[in-house]
Amino acid sequence: MNEFWVLLTGSLVGITCGLTGVFLILRKTAMIADAISHTVLFGIVVAFMVTQSLNGVWMLIGAALAGLLTTFLVQVLQSGGLQEDAAIGVVFTSLFALGVLLITLFAGNVHLDVEHVLMGEIAFVPWDTWSILGFEMPKAVWMLLFVLFLNIAFLVLFYKEIKLSTFDPVFALSIGLPIMGMHYSYMTLVSLTTVAAFDSVGAVLVVAMLIGPAATAYLMSKSVRGMIIWSMTFGITAAISGYYLAKLWNTSIAGMMAAMIGVLFMFVFLFKPHDGWVWKAVNRMRANGSKVLSR
């Protein structure tokens, strides 16, 4: 039964992060996910300091506020003339370092440490359970299901708006769409997705889950709906294959899941029919051979 919960948790991480990551890739804001996945540590610590509780609800609220703060500060620095990558670097390192300092000063005696937040341990997920409406499941599963529902609801309600603001923000602004409101709402979902996956894969590996499946899906499909389906598929595939390979080689489960994302990306990049690097190389060799024969 424990194996089932680990596989379910990993698959939910793959689905949720894969779904969220699609518009991060399309909006060319993939690195903001890296920043948010680290700066939410600051939000979690502040939430603990205020409530003296590690309750998952307060963690989600703290993470959401930290994600909004990160996005806002990056936007402010960009408006002040700083390049986007530099703005992300300044905000990311500053808030993350502040979160680490607050942990050591005010949360040293509780189960809240940098290694746990960064690396996670999916094997321990089945032992930390919540009972809601008579159903007892791991806390990570409840949180991931809740965040997945929020992500799906957001895309169902605002699919046209988020798609238009992604591909043609000038036109979207001209017809009165709240561009910044959509941006901050989406970054809030990224923050919630990140903290929901903390217990299972950790903050560092969440970045791989957010970016890798969506980037791989971008190679497979140029339609948004196709990208969403492929991204979630790659996320699930990486989670399941990573789990069994980690068992086979007795290594980190979360680490192997993230490694499999890289393997899937490279496989698609090299061998995608007609567009893969290997196919293009073979076609170039054939074209060069034809030119030689024609002479």
UniProtKB/TrEMBL annotation:
<protein>
    <submittedName>
        <fullName>Metal ABC transporter permease</fullName>
    </submittedName>
</protein>
<keyword id="KW-0812">Transmembrane</keyword>
<feature type="transmembrane region" description="Helical">
    <location>
        <begin position="227"/>
        <end position="246"/>
    </location>
</feature>
<feature type="transmembrane region" description="Helical">
    <location>
        <begin position="140"/>
        <end position="158"/>
    </location>
</feature>
<dbReference type="InterPro" id="IPR001626">
    <property type="entry name" value="ABC_TroCD"/>
</dbReference>
<feature type="transmembrane region" description="Helical">
    <location>
        <begin position="86"/>
        <end position="108"/>
    </location>
</feature>
<feature type="transmembrane region" description="Helical">
    <location>
        <begin position="252"/>
        <end position="271"/>
    </location>
</feature>
<keyword id="KW-1003">Cell membrane</keyword>
<comment type="similarity">
    <text>Belongs to the ABC-3 integral membrane protein family.</text>
</comment>
<dbReference type="InterPro" id="IPR037294">
    <property type="entry name" value="ABC_BtuC-like"/>
</dbReference>
<dbReference type="Pfam" id="PF00950">
    <property type="entry name" value="ABC-3"/>
</dbReference>
<feature type="transmembrane region" description="Helical">
    <location>
        <begin position="56"/>
        <end position="74"/>
    </location>
</feature>
<keyword id="KW-0813">Transport</keyword>
<keyword id="KW-0472">Membrane</keyword>
<keyword id="KW-1133">Transmembrane helix</keyword>
<feature type="transmembrane region" description="Helical">
    <location>
        <begin position="32"/>
        <end position="50"/>
    </location>
</feature>
<feature type="transmembrane region" description="Helical">
    <location>
        <begin position="6"/>
        <end position="25"/>
    </location>
</feature>
